[in-house]
Write a structure and sequence with these properties.
This protein is an all-alpha fold. 68% of the residues lie in helices and 0% in strands. The longest helix is centred in the middle third of the chain and has 25 residues.
């Protein structure tokens, strides 16, 4: 599901799907299972890509001194 959402450029929805997959895998397979680790890596990569994409999109003019928006607004803090 997350891959299709990424393809459609629905990044916040993709990240949510990846997070749900990680939670499901951790609960049912355990945190050390290879599938769980792979899903966790995909989730982290998607979060990082969204952070970069949002930063580039919201990058302020060099003279303002403002800071770009973190993607955390899409998936909540500390996740």
């Amino acid at each position: 599901m997350g891959v299709e959402q990424e393809f459609l450029r629905s990044y916040p929805a993709a990240i949510l799907s990846y997070k749900k997959a990680v939670n499901f895998a951790e609960k049912n397979l355990g945190p050390d299972d290879g599938i769980t680790q792979n899903l966790r890596n995909v989730y982290e990569n998607a979060r990082n890509e969204l952070d970069v994409a949002v930063f580039k999109k919201k990058k302020p003019a060099a003279t303002t001194g403002a800071v770009g928006v973190k993607a955390a607004k899409y998936y909540g803090p500390g996740q």
